[in-house]
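Weekly structure sync, notes
Attendees: PL, DS, HV (note-taker this week)

Item 1: Polysaccharide deacetylase family protein
DS walked through the input record. Source organism listed as Marinomonas colpomeniae. Sequence as pasted into the shared doc:
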Amino acid sequence: MLLKVRCGIVIGVLSASMMSQAQDYLPVLQYHHVSATSPKSTSVTPEQFTEHMDYLKTAGFQVVDLRSALDDLKDNIALPEKAVAITFDDAYRNIYKAGFPILKERSFPFTIFINTEPVERQSRSFLTWDQMKEMKASGGAFANHTISHPYMLRKNEGESDSAWLGRMTNEVDTVEGLLVEKLGSSPKMMAYPYGESNITIRNMMKEKGLMAFGQQSGVVSADSDFENLPRFPASGAYAKLSTLKTKLNSKPMPIASIKTGGDFATDKPVSLNLTFKQGKYRLKDLVCYVSGQGKAELDWLSDSEVVATASRPFDIGRGRINCTMPDNSGRQYYWYSNVWIRSEANEGYISEKS
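Item 1 (cont.): predicted structure, written out as tokens:
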């Protein structure tokens, strides 16, 4: 009996120790090109990518398989301490030539979201199915980025809402079929081209069992919208290791509810209403930044509810508000971001109500 009690105590101590080292959130890095000659805005050089991957290794980050980690978070299963996931968009061949050897050497799993039209026509700038098979054998996963990389919320001229939705359904279903046919399986994940989606597209993802990513920054947790997940861009202007370190050490903002006013911005300044969970947080240190405008105005409606408002309307295109707040230790930051689309009438965007 005494032995059982002692064993129970040991198991309890070990469990507590393991939980203290566990993590209930996941930063996800987003890359495109790994090249010194591709567009700088969406590229890291091989040297920069090596620096990033070396930092993950030496700083003790645990690079995890993305889909498995998302499943665990959704089921409230703890991830390893300092878990992180690596992703790429667009299936560029330079990922295979310059990025894959670096990942393979370190045994890092990774996910590439592929648009299949250039792959199928055998563009020399894009991956081949054989290259993908080789990468899959060494920890690579390949997921959905549509056939043709369209703006998913834009209708063709004269196209009805139902015809648009049918076209978007085909963009998704065709890639899912090719992943199974060519690679044997699909991880059932999606990255929206340009990060754009609306409630109709997100409902489609849910019905098809696909987890999906936008292009807002932030950290994934069990509270995230699994049809519109955040990632941290790590290319171009975001490739500096100093700023990447802050993002890798970020936590999900402790938010109980969010009001954004919808996916589309108008000719009025956008606002973001955040209600925080119960707890002791450094709410007085919350700062929200509006893309291209600086700090948002913060209006505290109560001790736990704030409205962040832009100073002026967004320009045409995509705009965002990023909010950060230090945790009680001051060593990590809570992070939340939201993106809006401000469209022009001639761009053919689907109605906000569709």
